[in-house]
């Protein structure tokens, strides 16, 4: 794109715009990272059922986006995935196909879709990188979600080869922050722990963490991820996906994550581990070498600071956040 063309107004449609990452992008844009030539449109499942092709097409024809950040998905934690693998596969396949095909049909210049590190092969060498997505089956606990997300990469390649479309994808590690799903049963590990610590503090009971606490994860703060999404949308021109993550050296155990939350919320009770509960994958260490080649100076928010900010947001917004 030439400098002159850069002045053409962009209409950026964000699907899943009221979720964790959508809210973070909205905040970062509102706080000064947006540009005068960008119009941002955040939509949710209330605006259209993206599993329905006609509703998806109507949404695109209504807003006429030039660019799309595709975040909408059926998501859930380990235990929800284990129970509903077929549902995760079918709903996400429909959503992704409808969004990408509507983008193609309405002449969208660029789509940035959001994948997940859980899509990588279960049996693999570490650290995992962008070239390894299709090297073997994903972990059996969430194969439905994982395969549906992998297919975005296949579809992006197809649209590029057949139609020259600039559709790409990012692969964040475990995202957390304000507006997360803090549901203890169905949410991801960090927001679930934050809610558990909050309740344990209210009731004066011990905090019980599911599993051994030994699995290790790379956590990325949603506001850091939002800033990286803007860079990908504006600057990253590859169709091949890119991992958005803190470095390997910033991986923390579930125990360390729980201890960070305990400290942030000033919880004084006992910390217990229920080893009868499943741990899920032990580690999914991802390399951010590709990101660092592009952005060697990017500053991530320190983990404990990001946890503290998230805990404060949750406590302040408890009535709505716990739903």
Automatic annotation (TrEMBL):
SUPFAM superfamilies for this protein: NAD(P)-binding Rossmann-fold domains
Pfam families: Epimerase (PF01370)
Domain spans labelled NAD-dependent epimerase/dehydratase: 12-247
InterPro entries on file: Epimerase_deHydtase, GDP_fucose/colitose_synth, NAD(P)-bd_dom_sf
Gene Ontology CC annotations of this record: cytosol
GO molecular function annotation: GDP-L-fucose synthase activity; GDP-mannose 3,5-epimerase activity; identical protein binding
Record-listed E.C. numbers: 1.1.1.271
Cross-referenced Gene3D superfamilies: NAD(P)-binding Rossmann-like Domain, UDP-galactose 4-epimerase, domain 1
Keywords: Isomerase, Multifunctional enzyme, NADP, Oxidoreductase
Catalysed reaction equations from the record: GDP-beta-L-fucose + NADP(+) = GDP-4-dehydro-alpha-D-rhamnose + NADPH + H(+)
One BP term from GO: 'de novo' GDP-L-fucose biosynthetic process
Pathway the protein takes part in: Nucleotide-sugar biosynthesis; GDP-L-fucose biosynthesis via de novo pathway; GDP-L-fucose from GDP-alpha-D-mannose: step 2/2
Similarity field: Belongs to the NAD(P)-dependent epimerase/dehydratase family. Fucose synthase subfamily.
Record note on quaternary structure: Homodimer.
Name of the molecule in the record: GDP-L-fucose synthase
This protein's encoding gene: GFUS
